[in-house]
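The following record pairs a protein chain with its ligand, zinc ion.
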Amino acid sequence: MAYKIHHLNTATLCPGNQWGVNGSGSILKKGLMVCHCLLVETDQGLVLIDTGFGIQDVLHAGFAERLSMQALGAIADPQECAINQIKKLGYRPDDVRHIILTHLDVDHAGGIKDFPQATVHLHQNEFIAGMRPITLQEKLRYSAKDWAHQPNWKTHQVVGERWEGFDAVSVLSDALYDILLVPLHGHSRGHCGVAVSTTEGWILHCGDAYFSHQEIKLEVPKCPPILAAVQAMDDTSRADRLYNQQRLIDLHHSSNESIRLLCSHDHEEFDTCCHYTSFLGRKS
Ligand SMILES: [Zn+2]
């Protein structure tokens, strides 16, 4: 049985302008970003890696959701929500058995309330930040409404496991595949990437550890100015964010494409991923 990995854009975002957000083009035209989530078929049911906004966030946005959606220039289209795309693929919402979150910002975790039966995995530091926000930034970025349904949380802490030189912790695995949380703190207190083993190598979903492929994949990395400002405004630890970005640059250039890095909001990476099909497994 071949288990497919689906790439879902759960929200089209049109913030700022093309030059400031995408690094080229007009300052008179809107920028373009996505909310790139993964839906992984497994023998343990469907696994959703980040959820995007929830359906109620889009239809009846509360304060935190409205703040986030306006800042991101989100087009409120319920058809893009993960729950509707999953139904369109022929699955039921309760087929989603596990959700793995890079972090708890509403554009990544808002949809957990659409899958109340799923076990929600995340790093313990992020869970603590979400449940007991300390700074004003943390109080504004998280929305307790997203977990008012009291999800079945499963928090993870690194205990010595390693992956490609990074700390890692296994979230789901069996004899044929691995799905790991890879701490990439900095954007938020417990922000992580999620590594998925495929028959062609690894996919590393980097969440918001970077915002544009130009920061990681160019010979001379650069960041479109609006994205640079947004990341500086959003980060919890600048030193950790920049340190982890450098490690991702090194990983990208040393892995000879056997590890495919993608982030949450880069539309070019998303478009590229939609052109090929990946299957859960291990490279032989
Ligand atoms: Zn984000």
